[in-house]
Amino acid sequence: MARKSSFERYQKRRLITSYFSVVISISLVLFLLGLLGLLVLNTKKVADHFKEQIALTIYLKDNAKDVEIKQLQKSLALAEYTKSATFVSKEEAAQQHSQDIGENFMDFLGYNPLQNSIDVFMNADYVTSETIEEISTEITAKDFVDEVTYDKPLISLLNDNVKRVTFWVLVISGIFTFIAVLLINSSIRLSVYSKRFTIKTMQMVGATKRFIRRPFIWKSVRLGMLGAFLALCGMAAILYYLNESFPELNILSDPILVGALFLGVFVVGIIITWISTFFATQRFLNLKTDELYY
User: Is the alpha carbon torsion for 72, 78, 80, 83 positive or negative?
Assistant: First the structure.
């Protein structure tokens, strides 16, 4: 009796260890998938944030009238491509420039060489070389506008890098999703493997395949739900940290999208464990008794 009790305790410990490893594997894999999902969803948002930091600066001639400047600023503010339009007087520009260089340059020059200007920050969808060039040409045509400047190489580089990063994020997400399925499937198969003799015994006494599969699938689904819950807790912590550290990115600005991602991770955990358990049990149900020892 003592030997049997010791063996039963050993088997119980092995079973608990097996379940624990399955839950940890599922939670880690789903956590990684969730982070990749967050990255995919926020790649455009992060790129848009940087695009909207690029200013289109309109330098005005000294003889520009106040009414012309106000009219231009108002029309820019109402334009669909504008995020914000701010008038910067030559005095404000000189003060800012003096702060940047650490000394008052006008003490040496004796006058203020800077010009009145309007800084236009555009909506991200319009920050392309072609669109900005068209806008720049249209504004430059006005008589009281001296010139329009913007960082053209930076815009081209930013757009190229956004396309490149988006492509590779999608590729890496696909690869990791495939690896995730393999890892979870392997963990489930190892868990079912330890019960292969029980499966065959139940089959030999007349139990149907569906009847045999049901408890294994239900157990794995519950483990998948637990693993998904742990993964979602980790994702929530990461989201909270990012939102507190980088509030300008507005990561939680679309709660419906974030909620859909969380629900998707939870459902994926259930589906993968269900499918993996189904095929794992089916494999052992189709084996002959002698093949169970290999």
Answer: positive
Q: Scanning the structure block, which residue is given the tokens 């010791």? A: 6
The first and second tokens of residue 65, run together, are 């009238």
CB neighbour list of residue 271: distance below 8 Å, 6 or more residues apart: none
Angle at which helix 129-140 crosses helix 152-193, to 10 degrees, equals: 160
pLDDT in tens, 62-106: 888 888 888 988 998 888 989 988 888 888 877 777 776 666 666
pLDDT band (50, 70, 90) for residue 293 = low
Which stretch of DSSP H or E encloses residue 285? helix 255-286
For the chain, the straight-line distance linking the first and the last C-alpha, in angstroms and rounded, comes to 30
Nearest Cα to Cα of residue 90 among 57, 137, 68: 57
CA distance to 28, 67, 77, 79, 142, per residue, from 64 (Å)? 63, 9, 19, 21, 10
Closest CA to 294 of 216, 205, 196: 196
User: Strand 145-149 vs strand 117-122: parallel, antiparallel, or unpaired?
Assistant: unpaired
Contacts 24+ apart (CB under 8 A), 199-206: 199/281, 199/284, 199/285, 200/284, 200/287, 200/289, 200/292, 203/285, 204/289
pLDDT per position as a tens digit, 2-25: 444 564 565 566 656 666 777 887
Distance CA(220)–CA(228), nearest Å, equals 12
Q: What order of strands is seen across the sheet that includes strand 117-122?
A: 82-88, 117-122, 55-60, 145-149
User: In this structure, what token pair is assigned to residue 49?
Assistant: 């944030």
Residue 167's closest CA among 43, 271, 53? 43
Both structure tokens of 103: 């000394």
d(CA 247, CA 245): 6
> b/e string for 171-190 if b means 16 or more Cβ within 10 A?
eebeebbeebbebbbebbbe
At 271, which amino acid appears? Answer: I
